[in-house]
Amino acid sequence: MRRRSGMSLIELVVVISMIGLLVALILPAIHGAREAARRAACKSNLHQIGIALTGYSSNHGVYPGIDESYSVMTRLLPHLDRATLYNSMNFSLSILYMDGLDSNQTAMRSVVSAFLCPSDDTRAVTYAPSNYPSNWGSGVLISLQSPSGPFSVAGARSAISNAQIRDGLQSTVGVSEMLIGVAGLRRDKKRSVFYLPLSVSDREQFDGFVQECGHIASDEASLDGLIKASSWVIAEFGITQYNHNLNPNNFTCKHDGYDRQGAWTASSSHEDGVNSLFMDGHVQFIRSNVNLSVWRGISTIAGGEIVPLADH
Fold it and tell me: Which of 62, 126, 206, 213 has its CA 20 to 30 A from that of 225?
């Protein structure tokens, strides 16, 4: 009898199905491993920034402040082995004006790898972006009123020292994450900036604003033109500054006419949360569903909150 060679059609279909099943099982594992590596790299970047903050504080006795132009991150460059880049910047000119922008173009287009989270693959912005904004605290801010976070603002209060962080370095967030925004009319819960024509001048109005932002009809609400996290240089809400007015990965909403009173929300591509750097240098992953009072409590330097760390 002649022996048959090769596979029958049924056998071939079974083999292909098994290969397909194996691929379907392996690919999510590969993706999960890659994201775990990216998340670890993102956490490592925040550790570096934490070391830089400690180094700055040791050298100056206070933490870096925010002036009308330059972010906290610009002041940390010498402590991140980027002294040459720092020395190339002309801090005597404000980047709010064209002469300052022109003078600092090269620096503003220089990518600093320590400021980029590998989990965020969006890079389509004019200047070199940063995924790590500094914390401005939470609540209502009137005019040049000082923020409740750990960084000072020119004209509002003097630079902050360790002694002034009375809630404890281990209980106060300094830096968290923010996804780079998208230009144009694309609507994205974590990347877009939505516009709410509401006034925010007292606690009652603030509560109403935050509640409406958290449940905004994103397919109908007006979009603001600001591109989030689009520069590591520019000291501006939504670019290098954020607040704890809403839980991580919720909407970002701009107030009518006064940026400081918006909900500038932390965000990431990690599953269900963001990495946050505390002022003592430790980095912790905080879930998107963290209790809002806890999230706001860890944003302030002297709010007197008793923060249950296990709830993060």
Answer: 206
